[in-house]
Design goal:
The structure is a single chain. It contains 9 helices and 6 strands; from the N terminus they run E-H-E-E-E-H-H-H-E-E-H-H-H-H-H. With 210 residues, the protein is an alpha/beta fold. Helix 3 packs across helix 5 and helix 7 (173-185) packs antiparallel against helix 8 (187-201). 21% of the residues are buried.
């Protein structure tokens, strides 16, 4: 995975986003290119090209807007969910390329999440403009689900996502509940010790405890 952008954007990426990747073998995403760009640096080739987007097969572009009076750290933080979502599109394009309702991997994902598979964009016309119909295709649901998993919100997806790039799950629900019990019942010293151990042996678990 290669990250490209201005030095201050790269510094923010390493401080604010990369910690979410701890414990994940991102070397398996070795052809992914993530561009952190100013709005002026974004391509202007289509209606959506200036917005955050994934361009198959392996390019993500995120515009970091410099807002007067707002710290760039705050602005970057607001983009963390967008970056994770767009990486989700890279993941399904790379590891679940067959967008068909009878595909076994998509079927497994649907069973785990309770989603009904539907890969169609439904659109309708209002006046002279074309607007998306209020329907979310499965690959958008997947990207949102991946985002939630990456940011530590659904441990039940740990095994599925990690297995896509042939990596073992780092934590399961039972282990997470044990860690939460230690966190909540052993005081500040216990909390410090737990994070010391996890930082050394299982940094992925920390994401679920934040």
């Amino acid at each position: 995975m290669k990250v490209i952008g201005k030095p201050d954007f790269l510094n923010l990426y390493y401080k604010q986003f990369k910690p979410y990747l701890r414990g994940i073998d991102i070397s398996k995403w070795n052809n992914l290119n993530l561009y952190l760009l100013t709005p002026e640096e974004m391509p202007n080739t289509s209606l959506n090209s200036t917005r955050p987007h994934f361009q198959p097969p392996n390019t993500i572009r995120i515009p970091i807007v410099n807002i007067e009076g707002i710290d760039t750290k705050v602005v970057f933080d607001s983009n963390i969910h967008l970056i994770a979502h767009e990486i989700g599109h890279f993941i399904h394009t790379t590891y679940l390329p067959n967008e068909k309702i009878d595909d076994p991997l998509w079927g497994k994902w649907a069973n785990l999440t309770g989603n009904k598979l539907d890969f169609t964009w439904k659109t309708t016309n209002f006046g002279g403009s074309r607007h998306l119909y209020p329907h979310v295709p499965s690959f958008e649901d997947f990207a949102n689900n991946f985002k939630d998993w990456l940011l530590g919100k659904c441990v039940y997806m740990e095994k599925f996502f990690m297995s896509l790039w042939k990596q073992n799950a780092k934590i399961n629900e039972e282990q997470l509940n044990i860690f939460k019990d230690i966190l909540n019942n052993t005081g500040e010293d216990g909390k410090i010790k737990l994070f010391e151990i996890l930082s050394k042996y299982n940094p992925r678990a920390i994401i679920y405890l934040k």
